[in-house]
Amino acid sequence: MEISTHFFNMHFTISIMLVCSKFRICHARDTITKDTPLYSNETIISAGNIFELGFFTGQVDDNRNGSFVGIWYYKLQPRTIVWVANRDQPQSLDSKQVVFIGEDNNLHFTDKFTRRNFTRSSNTTAKLLDTGNLVLIDGQSGKIWWQSFKHPTDTFLPGMKMTAELELTSWIELSRPGTGIYKFKLDEDEKLYVIKKKR
Ligand SMILES: *[C@@H]1O[C@H](CO)[C@@H](O)[C@H](O)[C@H]1NC(C)=O
Ligand SMILES: *[C@@H]1O[C@H](CO)[C@@H](O)[C@H](O)[C@H]1NC(C)=O
Ligand SMILES: *[C@@H]1O[C@H](CO)[C@@H](O)[C@H](O)[C@H]1NC(C)=O
Ligand SMILES: *[C@@H]1O[C@H](CO)[C@@H](O)[C@H](O)[C@H]1NC(C)=O
């Protein structure tokens, strides 16, 4: 009797420990708020561990690498980047970088960041969804101000809309995220989606 109770307790304790450690693994945040900016030593991960947003190094030109902010599939190797925030504004690798929500409620990416006391007039949160969409949400109304799905880079993801405004533009090269010369968009005359080379 005593043994079985002891076994039960032990089993119970182990189960709790497993739940806790699982919880800790799953606990990575999926938001950037005014109080919690994102530094280059961290990433955010969508709630279901599908997508990750963070900093990555890419080639700027033949002699220079720079820092970019992007979204890629969580833990997928090789890393598959589906969106780049600053493809034509790379930051220097030497500087300390941070993505934060500014007083203007927009998302900023900079190397000149000083933490300030924000007015609490509004409460915007950037959230990375399991679809790969990064949304800027108004904390009070829940309204979506902005979303990366409406500003794609070179990748079409399920959930995006194929509208007349949709435009995907290639990277310059495999290792250079900057705006390249191939565009995927709707051809006005033909009513077809086409891939065009920029002249
Ligand atoms: C990341 O860097 C920031 C700023 O340099 C620092 O405050 C923070 O503790 C660091 N976080 C981790 C997890 O190392
Ligand atoms: C840029 O980064 C790549 C990959 O990390 C590396 O192989 C290359 O040598 C770097 N180039 C420069 C100019 O630092
Ligand atoms: C921010 O607010 C706190 C508490 O109100 C205050 O102690 C601190 O000095 C303020 N910091 C700045 C940079 O204004
Ligand atoms: C800000 O919004 C988040 C959700 O986006 C909510 O959890 C939090 O309580 C809000 N804070 C304030 C001060 O309104």
Q: Topology, please?
A:
Layout: H1 2-26, E1 31-32, E2 38-39, E3 44-45, E4 51-61, E5 64-73, E6 81-84, E7 98-101, E8 107-110, E9 124-128, E10 134-138, E11 144-147, E12 167-173, E13 176-187, E14 192-197
Antiparallel strand pairs: 1-9, 2-7, 3-4, 4-5, 5-6, 7-8, 9-10, 10-11, 12-13, 13-14
Organism: Lithospermum erythrorhizon (Purple gromwell)
Protein name: Transmembrane signal receptor
Signal peptide: 1-28
Structure characteristics:
single chain, 199 residues, mainly beta, Agglutinin, subunit A, 4-stranded antiparallel sheet, 14 strands, 13% helix, disordered N terminus, binds 2-acetamido-2-deoxy-beta-D-glucopyranose
Describe this structure in words.
There is one protein chain. The chain has 199 residues and is mainly beta. The chain contains one helix and 14 strands. The chain has one domain: Bulb-type lectin domain (Agglutinin, subunit A, Orthogonal Prism). It has one helix at 2-26, and strands spanning 31-32, 38-39, 44-45, 51-61, 64-73, 81-84, 98-101, 107-110, 124-128, 134-138, 144-147, 167-173, 176-187, 192-197. The strands form four sheets. It has a four-stranded antiparallel beta sheet with strand order 1-9-10-11, with no helix packed on it. The chain has a four-stranded antiparallel beta sheet with strand order 3-4-5-6, with no helix packed on it. Strand 9 and strand 10 (134-138) form a beta hairpin. The longest helix has 25 residues, at 2-26. The termini are far apart. 21% of the residues are buried. Residues 120, 123, 125, 137, 139 line the site of one 2-acetamido-2-deoxy-beta-D-glucopyranose.
